[in-house]
UniProtKB/TrEMBL annotation, chain A:
Pfam families: ThiS. This is Molybdopterin synthase sulfur carrier subunit.
């Protein structure tokens, strides 16, 4: 399946791709593992995923054409 | 979530003192108000390893941030008897010494305005997908972390 990737903050410095073709991955836990293997820097920092603008607290299914945001800790204000 | 329109909170660059004073002035016709509480966040010239922060560059996942802010706004209005609440957060570059966050709450008596203002600031910092990049005078940078 194809997903759209949005990277923010310091994560945007090392994950610059906007689209990802992945097979055999169906949920956010699987995607996290895939991303951490592909981008080892990601496994060294805290981050959260949001799928279609829903912040992920526990494992969730990802469907084709989903938009997944990868977000480091927030620092607004 | 209610069907109330989602308000924008983002402004490009620093929030000017004249914008803040105009916001205050606009409330003179709302005579049921007895107290305002205002929080202003200012970019601090932190020193890290002998280098000082000259500006912060803010970015956000704007859609998600505005949805989340809408949810917080609704919660706060349910929790406190407020007359009004205004929130502005900078995006883009804000120099040290300039204002990057403006939270303004008003109520008939002071306590709800004060408590709501504090809660909005805390929740905004913790829950909104906004990131500050601290720019140093020598061109290097580091990513801000909220304490």
């Amino acid at each position: 399946m194809e997903i759209e990737l949005l990277s923010f903050g310091k994560i945007a410095e090392f994950i610059t791709i906007k689209k990802l073709s992945i097979d055999g991955i169906s949920d956010t836990d699987g995607l996290k593992k895939y991303l951490e293997d592909k981008f080892p820097q990601l496994s060294e920092i805290k981050y959260k995923l949001a799928v279609d603008k829903q912040i992920i607290q526990k494992n969730r299914i990802i469907t084709d054409q989903a938009t997944v945001a990868i977000m480091p800790p927030f620092s607004g204000g | 979530m209610s069907d109330k329109k989602i308000k924008n909170i983002f402004v490009n660059g620093a929030i000017s003192p004249s914008f803040i004073s105009e916001s205050i002035a606009k409330h003179s016709s709302k005579t049921e108000i007895g107290g305002h509480s205002i929080f202003l966040g200012q970019v601090r010239k932190d020193e890290i390893d002998g280098k000082s922060v000259s500006a912060i560059e803010y970015t956000a996942f704007e859609d998600l941030a505005l949805e989340k802010m809408h949810e917080i706004r609704e919660n706060i209005f349910e929790k406190y008897p407020l007359s009004c609440m205004h929130i502005y957060q900078s995006l883009g570059r804000v120099s040290a010494g300039e204002i990057c966050l403006f939270v303004f709450t008003s109520s008939a008596h002071r306590k709800p305005a004060i408590n709501a203002c504090e809660e909005v600031v805390e929740r905004l910092k913790a829950e909104l997908p906004i990131w500050g990049k601290e720019l140093f005078e020598d061109g290097s940078h580091q990513w801000k972390e909220n304490k």
